Amino acid sequence: MRHALAALLIVFLHGSPGDQPGSTRPGQPPLLLAIRNVNVISVAEGAVLRGTTVVITDDRITAIGPAADLVLPAGASVLDGTGKFLVPGFIDLHTHLSKTRGSALGLFVANGVTTVRDMGGDHQELLVWRREVMAGQRVGPRFLMAGPYLESASNIERMRKDSPEARVEPFDRIRIGIATPDEARQVVARLAAQEVDFLKFRTFESPEVYVALNEAANAHRLPLAGHVNALSPAQVLTAGQDSIDHTFFTSTSKLPAEQRLSLWRGFRDRAVPIVPTLVTLFEATYPSPGQLQALAADDEGRLDPRRGYLSRFLARDWREQAGEASVERTAALRKIWEDVVKRDLREMHESGMDLLIGSDVAVINIYPGFSLHDEMALFVRELGMTPAEVLDRATRRSARFLGIGDSVGSIERGRIADLVLLDADPLADIANTRRIHAVVLRGRVFGREAIDRLKEEVKRAPDRTRDDWGRTARR
């Protein structure tokens, strides 16, 4: 990112003294945990430090060394890591928590996802959840948020023409329509005075509004993220957008190879990453309309057990999405992927541009926490990355992009203890990221039984049986 995050983010990451879950209260001894004789994966080098012990005091890693040499602190709880592999907590760079609802926060943790970037939602509600998470009142990942989506005014007007019964999402609470450059500047100024970590646009009314959004975000020292399907790479580079979500689709199809490579190198030099969300293409558009409709209707999770964790709102939203699916759309997206997007993404990677990991959770057939592992697998299968390259992007590189790389994203002394203990080596097979033995969230251990309890709590959550947020919900 081109700018440092606001001071409020530092407080959110580190907390005030005594505010972190598991932190020492005055007059109490520190909480000590030792993960003994574990294989620590250095994501920066793609290497394994075998037979290592990691000591955690409260929420911080305070010592790392060979198990044979490191003396365990008196009174430390010991987690045996023999034969297991320790990686940093995973980061999902594209989520929509308002749509998944609060119950899903535990699912991220159960899947080893300890940090997420929320790409547009109900800002006031998200602030409440974030404070509850950091106070230890709710189990969930840390999250950075954009606040409401920025949209073209005409798109908002189109939404308003629908009756409440015809559209599930309460768009007035999460989307702001912008018609002119002046409105863009006013909206950005208003959001900059609130507790947001960056801005996100989805659609824009005109090229002039797009430029104004970038200029205003820059003036207020707020990073700007957004969709680029209506933009060319040259436009994005010139405007100064800070990150790209999804991809350019057809806008590069007629460019010569060397011109494309020059553009990708331009993004590399400006440290502008792309979060392609491949899993939305493969899991949300490639299944047939009939398959998606059956999945949306499967409240008991018989077709896919992950479906049984969805909130009532998201189940309703998926039904709406399933109704918009078509064979023609699937065929068109398959062709674009094979002819353009796959080539572009591979070129971006080869040119040194950062491709980072995000799931776009809330899209149909994309599941909180679970689908990030699907995305990692697609980076290996479709983009030709090694498991080591993917792990680095799902942890250290994502943390660096978010401006929090000095706190999370790697296993080093002084870092916050967000860790995932795996039963098998993810460098040998990226699918092993799913084989979670335990999760350490800011120093708090969730073993197998605790993870199972988290999942059961999700199933019993009130928002699983009642839509507490949609347009027809009573608040």
- Which class of the largest domain in CATH terms? Alpha Beta
Tell me the number of strands.
17
What fraction of residues sit in β-strands?
Answer: 15-25%
Low-confidence stretches: 1-26
Shape: globular
> What is the C-alpha radius of gyration, as a whole number of Å?
22 Å
CATH homologous superfamily classification of the largest domain:
Metal-dependent hydrolases
Q: Enter the CATH topology name of the largest domain.
A: TIM Barrel
Query: Average pLDDT value?
Result: 92
Describe the biggest sheet? 8 strands, mixed
What is the tally of helical segments? 18
Fraction of residues in helices?
25-40%
Give the name of the CATH architecture of the largest domain: Alpha-Beta Barrel
Given helix and strand content, the structural type is alpha/beta
